[in-house]
C-alpha cells in the first residue's frame, strides 16, 4: 500500500511532523526500519526548508502504528500525546522550536511566557498578591525547622490555590495570569522578597544562600531556571498532564507535578549528585573509587535520553568556569568527569551541573533540587494549557487484573 505524500505548506515550520528518531520510537522499531518503510512506499519522507533531516507526518505515522504488522507498536495513551512545547532531538533541547541554550540568558519570566503562549516577549513581570504571600509565609513558618525547600514549595502552592477563589477558571488567559502569580508567590514566600521590580531569580536567591549575590551569580541562577523549565514528557510532567486532563486548576496541576518530581529518580537525583560532589571535594578519585567499589551508579552522570552530552549541563558548567569562586568545585568535578568519560563513556548531566552550581555559589544542600522543581513549574503549566484543549479524562486506562477472582 502506497501512502500519498502530503503537500508541503509554504514556509512550514515542521509542526505536526516527526523526526526519524521520533517516528522510530512511536512505531517501536529501529530507524533503519523507518527507512525501509519509506523505500517500500509505506511512509512518505518529507523535506522542509530550514528543518534538518527527514520528517514524517504525524497522521501517517499514527495510521501506520494502528495497522497490524507495523512492528512493536506502542499502544498506550502516553505515546499518543502530541505536544508543540519541547523537542529533544539529536542531543539538542528546543522550546517552541528555539534552542534552549539560545534562550538561557533571557529572563526566566520571558521564557515561561514563550512556553505558555508560543511568543517570546522582550520583557515580562510576575506579581505576587500581597495577601497570598502573607498567608503562604505564615503556613511555611508552621513547618518543622528541617523542612526541605521543596516541602515548603508544596505548602505555598496549596495556600496560593486556596487564596484564589477564581482558580477554577482554566481558560487560557486566566490560567496564564494565575500561573504568573503563583510563580511570583512561591519565589516571594521562599525568598522573602516581594519587590515587583526584581526578577524571579533575584527574589529566589535568599531562599538558597545567605550571602548577597553578584550580578553574574543571579544571571547564572536565571539560566539554570530557563534550562530546567521543561523536558518533554518527564514523569512529573505526565502527572501534571493527567491532572489537567481532569480539568484540575493550575495550582492542582503544579501540585501534581511537585508530587511526581519528589522521588529519588527525578529531582531527588539532584540531591544525590550534590552529596556525591560534596564528598568528592577533598579526594575526587577516592570518592569515585568508593562508588565503583560498592558497585553503585555515580550520581549525576549519563542520561536515558541524551546519548553524547547533556546541553543543559554543558552550558551551566561552561558558565561556572567564568566565576573564580567555582574553581575549587570544578577542579573536583573535572577529575571525576574525566575518569568516568575515559572508563565508562559517561558525561555530566543537569543534576551534576546543578550540584556544582549550588556548591560553587554557597547554596544550601537542597537548593539544587529546589531550583529544578521551581523551574519545572513553568513547563507543567505549559503542558496543562495544551492538555486543556484535549479530550477530558483521556488517560483513563483499564488495568490488567491479576488478583484473586470471586466464585
Automatic annotation (TrEMBL):
The lineage's top-level taxon is Bacteria
- On whether DNA-binding is a keyword of this UniProt record, the answer is no
The pathway is:
Carbohydrate metabolism; tricarboxylic acid cycle
**Keywords for this entry?**
Transferase
What GO annotations for molecular function exist for this entry?
Answer: citrate synthase activity
GO cellular component terms attached to this protein's record: cytosol
Transmembrane ranges? none
The record's EC number reads: 2.3.3.16
* InterPro entries (UniProt xref): Citrate_synth-like_lrg_a-sub (IPR016142), Citrate_synth-like_sm_a-sub (IPR016143), Citrate_synthase (IPR002020), Citrate_synthase_AS (IPR019810), Citrate_synthase_sf (IPR036969)
Q: Does the keyword Transferase apply?
A: yes
Biological process, per Gene Ontology: carbohydrate metabolic process; tricarboxylic acid cycle
Q: Pfam families annotated for this entry?
A: Citrate_synt (PF00285)
What the record says about family reads: Belongs to the citrate synthase family.
User: What is the name attached to this protein's record?
Assistant: citrate synthase (unknown stereospecificity)
